[in-house]
Specification:
- The protein folds into 2 domains: 102 residues, no CATH class; 201 residues, no CATH class.
- The longest helix is centred in the middle third of the chain and has 26 residues.
- The protein is rod-shaped, with a radius of gyration of 35 Å.
- It is 56% helix and 8% strand.
- Strand 5, helix 19 and strand 6 form a beta-alpha-beta unit.
- The protein is α+β, with helices and mostly antiparallel strands and 413 residues long.
- Helix 12 packs parallel to helix 14.
Length: 413
């Protein structure tokens, strides 16, 4: 074979591989690969790594895809065939390479599609094409850092799911990918987003599993029915009798415990039985009474008066959450006082409020959240919804509550 530049050791290697008396097919194989453009080292690799059947399979692969593979790409493929190790794996590799080439994906372009030069990666990419995921979409997904070997983990099993994952990655970037990697499907991510909860919020809200995300969505979806039932019970005098003067009702649902439902109505300058019944008639005294129900000392009074109700509850945790609520209320007042111009209740500089007609603590949402806290809820787990008592229609948050509950989940759709 000296006339075509093949070292003697390669000829001997092929002769040994094919066996005595089969020098002609060995010589033809060497010439085939040399004419194809393979380097001597690649041809030597073939002779050392495969038996005659494996060599025939490689020849067949090159013949079938001769238009696509040339030169250095052929050398890459030989290395891949060496990885295969047996005829079955080599056959899978051969079919995968041919399938990829039909879509214009060749070894020199593997990096554009996130395909590594190994059998697993190539097979996964080929399988994606078989499932209808096009080469442009594979390339687009890799633009987000998603490789074909990631598809199973992310649940990408068809073109529709591939499109959905692409849209999540496009919209939310690394946070969206992180959510997908946790098993949270695109549909669930979108349902959360419809309620103002984006992947960037998941960590702070403790959304780490699909189950937690699903529970949160279920809680948000349940809130309208719970709020409506609350309004009906008020209208019918079932809960607080027939002399209710409040016009807004709120519920606070716990995403981790469906048994916790905080309830509250608006109004702290008159009797508000959703907080505590009072016979006081002086407005200032009533306001002072209701503000006091947010304090640690009042919680101690409640626990002492209702030991069975608080049995087994972590009173320190309840006080800690109530302190958070007080801080949220104070932050709203500070923001109102710092506004330009400052905002006050009825021009009273001692009572900052974004609403000129009522105090920050007047809102039903405050008292629904307080009620949920007393039942053991953490503020970060609360979903709130408010309705008009008269007809159950949605009541949007006022300017004060938008500020106070900016980080809470609102079931407002």
């Amino acid at each position: 074979m000296k006339q075509i530049g093949i070292p003697a050791k390669i000829t001997f290697q092929f002769a040994a591989t094919y066996g005595m008396g089969r020098i002609d097919p060995a010589t033809k194989a060497i010439k085939f690969f040399k004419d194809y453009g393979l380097s001597n080292s690649a041809i030597e690799t073939i002779g050392k790594s495969f038996d005659s059947k494996g060599i025939a399979l490689i020849e067949t692969t090159f013949i079938k895809s001769a238009i696509t593979y040339t030169g250095s790409e052929a050398n890459t493929i030989i290395i891949l065939f060496k990885q295969a190790g047996n005829i079955n794996a080599a056959t899978t590799l051969s079919n995968s390479l041919i399938n990829l080439s039909k879509s214009g994906i060749i070894p020199s372009t593997f990096n554009n599609y996130g395909i590594m030069s190994n059998i697993t990666s190539i097979t996964e990419a080929s399988d994606a094409l078989v499932k209808g995921i096009t080469s442009p979409l594979i390339k687009k997904l890799f633009g987000h850092g998603i490789k074909p070997t990631d598809y199973n983990t992310l649940g990408i099993t068809n073109p529709q799911m591939a499109d959905a994952v692409d849209q999540i990655a496009e919209r939310y970037g690394a946070d969206g990918l992180n959510a997908l990697q946790k098993g949270i499907k695109p549909d669930l991510i979108n349902r959360l987003a419809d309620n103002g909860i984006r992947p960037v919020d998941y960590e702070s809200m403790g959304i780490t599993t699909p189950q937690m995300a699903e529970t949160l969505v279920d809680t948000i979806n349940r809130a309208p029915r719970v709020a409506d039932d609350f309004a009906v019970a008020i209208r019918n005098g079932i809960l607080y009798g027939d002399d209710v003067t409040s016009n807004v009702a709120s519920v606070a649902l716990d995403t981790t415990n469906p048994d916790i439902i905080g309830r509250g109505m608006n109004g702290i300058w008159r009797n508000n039985p959703s907080i505590v019944n009072t016979n006081l008639t002086n407005t200032d005294e009533i306001i002072s009474l209701y503000r006091n129900t947010l304090t640690d000392s009042y919680i101690d009074e409640l626990v002492a008066a209702n030991p069975e109700q608080f049995a087994g509850k972590n009173i320190s945790a309840i006080k800690s959450e109530m302190a958070k609520l007080r801080e949220m209320i104070q932050n709203t007042k500070d923001a109102a006082a710092s506004a330009n111009p400052p905002k006050y209740f009825r021009n009273n500089p001692l009572e900052p409020s974004f609403q000129s007609d009522w105090l920050v603590e007047n809102c039903a949402e405050i008292w629904a959240v307080r009620d949920a806290i007393l039942q053991g809820s953490k503020i970060e787990n609360i979903v709130i919804r408010s309705v008009i008592i008269a007809d159950g229609s949605l009541k949007p948050l006022c300017k004060n509550c938008i500020e106070t509950f900016s980080d809470l989940i609102k079931a407002t759709e």
